[in-house]
Amino acid sequence: MGEPVGRPVVRTLIEKMRADPATLDGAVAAVRRQSPLVGRLPEHQVRRHVAALLDVVASAFAHSPAAHSAAAAADGPVSGGGNGIGTGTGEGELGASAAVADRLAFDRAIQGVPLAALLDGFQAGRVYALSRLIDEARAAQATEELFDALGELDAYSHELRNRLIDAYRAREEELGRSGYSARARALRELLLGEPTAAPPEALLEPGLRYHCLIADVTDPHRAAPTEAVLVSGGGVSGFVDGQLCSATPRLPAPERVGDLLVIATPAVRIAQLADAYRAAAAAMAAARARGLRGLRSVTDMAVPAAVHAQPRIGRFLAEQRLSRLDPAEQFHRLLAETALAYLEHGRRVETTAAALHVHPNTVKHRLRRFGALTDFDEPPEPGDTLEHSVRWWWALRAWLE
Fold first, then answer.
1. 247 with 273: CB under 8 angstroms?
2. Cα–Cα distances in Å, from 292 out to 45, 71, 232, 387?
3. What are the sequence ranges of the domains in the chain?
4. What is the largest CA-CA distance in the chain?
5. What is d(CA 176, CA 390) in angstroms, rounded to the nearest whole number?
6. pLDDT value at position 1?
7. d(CA 162, CA 123)
8. What are phi and psi of 155, to 5 degrees?
9. Residue 302's closest CA among 333, 323, 334, 280?
10. How far apart are the first and last CA of the chain?
11. Which of 105, 131, 292, 378 is most buried per CB count within 10 Å?
């Protein structure tokens, strides 16, 4: 007995979609749009899980016994058939789908995403992918047999959803027994300024001040060593908006943080932790964009955070002040980099030259050329010296980026 008529066509359509980056982009956007709690997580993590889900369903369809019925008729039974998803995938596909479901369930349970929100996202991704596949099938003038194959494919996604529910409930029960869920939920509510099920005093000591820490860790499977560092001075830790956070009365030693990026606020009262978290989150976004590492104070990140939060203003400044420079011209970029270094080193030629490893006369020459192309040499208005320099610094950074 040969393979059902519609299966080869569906397999071809699936491979076509998997090769198109727009498929994953659209599925991720649908998931984040339909499930706001999932949408608050780092996009790269949502993307990783969506890609894994799409791959495991496609693989289950491609390697099911129906896909190899012709070979089975000629060579005997397919090893492992009849034990998998839906209509029966092999043991390899069964293991892969279980692993994907368990990994996703673990991550979302640790991150505090409720099962309903997780399933909302799963359903949105499923509907998006299947709708695209149906559109492709119609464009290929599909037969009724082809739509039967699509129904079989959808059955695999339903079975994966069931595995996901079972895995999530198991993880949730495990975290509940350890008390982790309650502590992490209370921390999230505290840092997000939401009404808490328990008073803050049940989590932290009222008489102490606490630093809010955010670590550049988004993978729950790799969080344990960092959690130990963040709460080495006491306090509590957990995931908030997909990032590992803590409230601690004492900062960890910088050498223990090492090259990991960690943003720390000054110590504040418990009632001020929500404001501290928002400031730390803004500083983290700016620090990550600049590739910074180590333990960083939110106050040291004040200007970069403000600039990162308003990219359009930076582009306006660049368009206004650097319109005669061509970003594709390497010499123009060299001039801009020199001017930026000059501002960052207090407008001191000698210090700028040392930082750039060039002769001071080279710096002077580049600044003259830069001044000929811009208004960089024009003196500021009285009392405007500081803001004048900041505007130029912001324009240059925006232009170079």
1. yes
2. 20, 56, 23, 25
3. 6-178, 199-308, 310-400
4. 91
5. 50
6. 45
7. 12
8. -65, -35
9. 280
10. 61
11. 105
Q: Distance (Å, rounded) from C-alpha 73 to C-alpha 1? A: 6
Average pLDDT, the chain: 86
Please give the structure tokens belonging to residue 7: 């299966």
Q: What is the DSSP letter of 268?
A: B
The answer to whether 98 and 163 are in contact (CB under 8 A) is yes
CA angle 282, 33, 95 (to 5 degrees): 100
We find that the CATH architecture of domain 6-178 is: Orthogonal Bundle (1.10)
**CA 244, CA 232: separation in Å to the nearest integer?**
14
Cα–Cα distance, 31 to 355 (Å, whole number): 47
Let me know: does 134 contact 140? Beta carbons within 8 Å.
Answer: no
Does the pLDDT of residue 82 top 50, yes or no? Answer: no
Residue 210, φ and ψ in degrees, nearest 5:
-125, 140
Which residue did the predictor score with more confidence, 11 or 368?
368
CB 41 within 8 A of CB 66: no
Return the bridge partners of 263, or none. Answer: 214, 296
The Cα–Cα gap between 104 and 168 comes to: 8
Please name the amino acid found at residue 309. Answer: A
Q: Which two tokens stand for residue 370?
A: 């830069």
Cα angle: 257, vertex 274, 249; to 5 degrees? 45
34, two tokens: 């339909």
What is the Cα–Cα distance from 248 to 256, expressed in whole angstroms?
Answer: 15
In whole angstroms, give the CA distance from residue 316 to residue 397: 12
> From CA 152, how far away is CA 319, in angstroms rounded?
55
**Residue whose pair of structure tokens reads 């102490």 in the numeric block:** 208
Give the other-Cβ count within 10 Å of 193's Cβ. Answer: 13
Q: What is the Cα–Cα distance from 257 to 6, expressed in whole angstroms?
A: 56
Sorted by sequence, the CB contacts under 8 Å of residue 206 that are 6+ apart come out as 200, 270
Tell me which H or E stretch contains 29: helix 21-34
Round to whole Å and give the CA distance between 61 and 48.
20
Residue-wise pLDDT for 191-224, tens only, equals 998 876 666 667 889 889 999 999 999 999 999 9
